[in-house]
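I'll show one example:
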Amino acid sequence: MLLIIFGSIGGYLTKRYLEFSELDFSPPPVAVTVERAVIDLWSQRLNAVGTINAARGIELKSETAGEISEIYFDSGDTVSAGQPLVRLYDEVEQAIRNNRLANLQLAKVFFDRDKSLLENKSIPQSQFDQSIANKESAVAKLSEIEAILTRKVISAPFAGVIGLRQIDLGDYLSPGDAIANLQDLTQLEIDFSIPSRYRASLKTGLTLDVAVDAFPGRIYKAKVSAIDSRIDVSTRTILIRARFDEVQGLMPGMFGSLELDLGQTQELVTLPETAVTYSVQGNVVYFLKEEKDILTAFPRVVGVGPVRDGKVAILSGVTKDELIVTAGQNKLYRGAKVRPDNLSGFK
């Protein structure tokens, strides 16, 4: 009797075990969004950083020594070319000029008189030659003092905006002392460097986009105006200068992030930017492998390039037409079964 009971129990347990073993306890497929990697034709661009400068900008300095007697500008003034800015004390030089001007007038009187006498043969040629020399000497001495007087007035060499004034009335200036900055804000440039290996692609007229921290989201356009004639031996880079098409809001000394268009195109494998997971281990994408009508996800480290308009260039690790997960990869792991929610687009 017991044998029959235990036999029935054993048969029942065996049946249940077989039924249990046939059940599928694997996790359900993960819903993801996928896209195929495609080949896009992108213009070749280089990223760099540079410093904005005025095409004409100087620090005004005194060429001669003297006490400041007059100041004709204030900080921030807009000045025109040739406009006087500072006058140094020049009363002594003015007195010398008046004296030399009188000497010149006297020398001319003697010159005219001796010329008339020489025509009448009333004086020797040597006396008239002396009159010529005296007149020319007087002209030279007058020109000398007038040159000194010219240096007593400091004028704007070009039109622009004056910076902060570094002087006050009554200050004594020595040669080389700073007065103020003068910048022509109507023409601004940006200087930047790129690796010398791109020298063959460089030419004037190439365009670039420049962004500055002061105006987030705003892009300024510029064109390459000059390329340095030598390579920096310490960095193996070449210096480039570009001129802005528009300068509103920009100032010399600003830092700019730029993207230079080399005017060439290249074929690149691209994916939506959301397909790449950025981590300390590397840049990873999940590609799909199909086996017996089952899609399985596997991670792969890839090399990434520039990002444009929501797409990222894949430099290595992905080939054209591969199915790549673009959304939902935070739920994936190696060997995870997936169920693309947009699979119909890839039949």
Q: What stands out?
A: The two ends are 63 Å apart (CA to CA). The longest strand covers residues 255-272. Residues 91-119 form the longest helix (29 residues). The domain at 90-150 is CATH 1.10.287.470 (Helix Hairpins).
